[in-house]
């Protein structure tokens, strides 16, 4: 596909709305107004929408059956030619809708001029965009499901990989890498559900709303909705051509996906550093430095983190474009396409590369365990031990505070203190303390639902797998019942 000011093999373009004009459009205005550069990606949806509309017009006897058939055949042929790259779009035909209608009329004559009966570009662009984003959501859905699957598989092999958990980026309590992976699984599961909700609100058919006030023709909106796979038809013509909340909602869902990817990327960047050395990205997912020969940089993770910014930017842009528009359609709304297309493209670029990056990274288990052991991550467990021996928690907290203070001064970890040393802090401490505060016990005794214990993690992983298998067979493509 390409665009041209005027294709060599086509007659000079006459504006479809040119009737009431005395002068032709200024060249600069043609360029300025035109959206064909970016809305040509809607051609499949535009043609499908026009075919459904033409078929309904014929059935309802609003146009002759023969014209309806000629239109449908003509549109199918145009679709094939665009697929084959044989069509050059015209900038002065403004957008994908008028480009296709113009080509149709060039090819089939007067019948083509009847296609736009009972329709406006305002409901046409709304139906096209809803169909396009519906498809995009299905693609992103599959990618997010794949990511959830990758996280589950990784978690399965790390239920015993102990690592430090952090708050304030200070070592807090030991967890496992499986628990960390499954935390992100939960976040992406909510993103997945948000995508589903957004899909349902997008899957509503606006054709029949006309420019803003509906139409006097006896349109059968339900049959058009059924043919185009919509689950419902819009209930207010002004609303249907005015709002872009489905675009904003999707951009918000995509921003949240990017926020989660970015946060995880940030952790992987930290973990790849010499200071942490918890993981190492595969060579295939790293890059070097043009000056420093020793460098191996986590560029992929950084770029994903960076790209989150552009998706948030699109969300702000869309909200701002819409905030002051009086009902109904305003040309400002043509500005909805580039941001949402770019947001969709960005997410479709980031999710798969992120999946492959984490699936191939090397995990340094020993470093993770060492990290978990330093920094008194089992101090809470010493306090819990004292509580089990009868001390009130607040008192236990204070005793352990003194133990930690002593240990720092003597450069020992809690499991390196001798029984004599422990006894100076509390007579209730006995030999069994060493077992109670080992990293393994700290993790595996946290059996509360949602905790990091191996048996709890395995259950969470099993639930995740069952969820993914069940979701695999669920179709989002609910349609209007006849
Ligand atoms: N290209 C326009 C858009 O993307 C299509 C709708 C134009 N409608 C109109 N009345 N100018 O919004």
From TrEMBL:
<dbReference type="GO" id="GO:0005829">
    <property type="term" value="C:cytosol"/>
</dbReference>
<keyword id="KW-0963">Cytoplasm</keyword>
<dbReference type="InterPro" id="IPR009049">
    <property type="entry name" value="Argininosuccinate_lyase"/>
</dbReference>
<dbReference type="GO" id="GO:0042450">
    <property type="term" value="P:L-arginine biosynthetic process via ornithine"/>
</dbReference>
<protein>
    <submittedName>
        <fullName>Argininosuccinate lyase</fullName>
    </submittedName>
</protein>
<dbReference type="Pfam" id="PF00206">
    <property type="entry name" value="Lyase_1"/>
</dbReference>
<dbReference type="InterPro" id="IPR008948">
    <property type="entry name" value="L-Aspartase-like"/>
</dbReference>
<comment type="similarity">
    <text>Belongs to the lyase 1 family. Argininosuccinate lyase subfamily.</text>
</comment>
<dbReference type="InterPro" id="IPR029419">
    <property type="entry name" value="Arg_succ_lyase_C"/>
</dbReference>
<dbReference type="GO" id="GO:0004056">
    <property type="term" value="F:argininosuccinate lyase activity"/>
</dbReference>
<dbReference type="InterPro" id="IPR022761">
    <property type="entry name" value="Fumarate_lyase_N"/>
</dbReference>
<comment type="pathway">
    <text>Amino-acid biosynthesis; L-arginine biosynthesis.</text>
</comment>
<feature type="domain" description="Argininosuccinate lyase C-terminal">
    <location>
        <begin position="376"/>
        <end position="444"/>
    </location>
</feature>
<dbReference type="InterPro" id="IPR000362">
    <property type="entry name" value="Fumarate_lyase_fam"/>
</dbReference>
<feature type="domain" description="Fumarate lyase N-terminal">
    <location>
        <begin position="19"/>
        <end position="313"/>
    </location>
</feature>
<dbReference type="Pfam" id="PF14698">
    <property type="entry name" value="ASL_C2"/>
</dbReference>
<keyword id="KW-0456">Lyase</keyword>
<dbReference type="InterPro" id="IPR024083">
    <property type="entry name" value="Fumarase/histidase_N"/>
</dbReference>
<dbReference type="InterPro" id="IPR020557">
    <property type="entry name" value="Fumarate_lyase_CS"/>
</dbReference>
């Amino acid at each position: 596909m390409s665009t041209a000011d005027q294709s060599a093999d086509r007659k000079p373009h006459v504006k479809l709305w040119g009737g009431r004009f005395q002068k032709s459009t200024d060249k600069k205005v043609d360029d300025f107004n035109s959206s064909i550069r970016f809305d040509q990606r809607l051609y499949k949806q535009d043609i499908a929408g026009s075919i459904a509309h033409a078929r309904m017009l014929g059935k309802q006897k609003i146009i002759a059956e023969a014209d309806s058939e000629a239109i449908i055949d003509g549109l199918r042929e145009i679709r094939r030619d665009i697929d084959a790259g044989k069509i050059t779009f015209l900038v002065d035909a403004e957008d994908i809708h008028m480009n296709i209608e113009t080509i149709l009329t060039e090819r089939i004559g007067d019948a083509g001029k009847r296609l736009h009966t009972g329709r406006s570009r305002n409901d046409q662009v709304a139906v096209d965009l809803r169909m396009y984003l519906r498809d995009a959501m299905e693609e992103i859905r599959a990618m997010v499901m794949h990511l959830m699957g990758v996280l589950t598989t990784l978690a399965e092999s790390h239920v015993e990989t102990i690592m430090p958990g952090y708050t304030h980026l200070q070592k807090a309590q030991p967890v496992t890498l499986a628990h960390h992976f499954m935390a992100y699984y939960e976040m992406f599961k909510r993103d997945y559900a948000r995508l589903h909700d957004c899909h349902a609100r997008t899957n509503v058919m606006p054709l029949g709303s006309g420019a803003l006030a509906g139409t006097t023709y006896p349109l059968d909106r339900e049959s058009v909705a059924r043919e185009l796979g919509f689950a419902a038809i819009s209930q207010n013509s002004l609303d249907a051509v005015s709002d872009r909340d489905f675009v904003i909602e999707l951009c918000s869902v995509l921003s949240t996906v990017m926020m989660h990817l970015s946060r995880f990327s940030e952790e992987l960047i930290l973990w790849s550093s010499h200071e942490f050395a918890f993981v190492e990205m595969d060579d295939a997912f790293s890059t070097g430095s043009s000056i420093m020969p020793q460098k191996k940089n986590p560029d992929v993770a950084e770029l994903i983190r960076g790209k989150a910014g552009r998706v948030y930017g699109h969300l702000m842009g869309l909200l701002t474009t819409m905030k002051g528009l009086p009902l109904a359609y305003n040309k400002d709304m043509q500005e909805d396409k580039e941001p949402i297309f770019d947001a969709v493209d960005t997410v479709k670029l980031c999710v798969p590369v992120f999946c492959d990056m984490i699936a191939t990274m090397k995990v340094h288990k020993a470093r993770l365990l060492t990290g978990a052991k330093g920094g008194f991550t089992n101090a809470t467990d010493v306090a819990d031990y004292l509580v089990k021996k009868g001390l009130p928690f607040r008192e236990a907290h204070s005793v352990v505070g003194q133990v930690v203070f002593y240990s720092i001064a003597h450069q020992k970890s809690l499991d390196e203190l001798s029984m004599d040393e422990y006894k100076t802090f509390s007579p209730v401490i006995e030999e069994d303390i060493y077992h109670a505060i080992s990293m393994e016990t700290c993790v595996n005794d946290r059996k509360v639902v949602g905790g990091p214990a191996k048996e709890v993690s395995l259950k969470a992983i099993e639930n995740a797998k069952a969820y993914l298998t069940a979701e695999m067979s669920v179709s989002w493509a609910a349609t209007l019942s006849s």
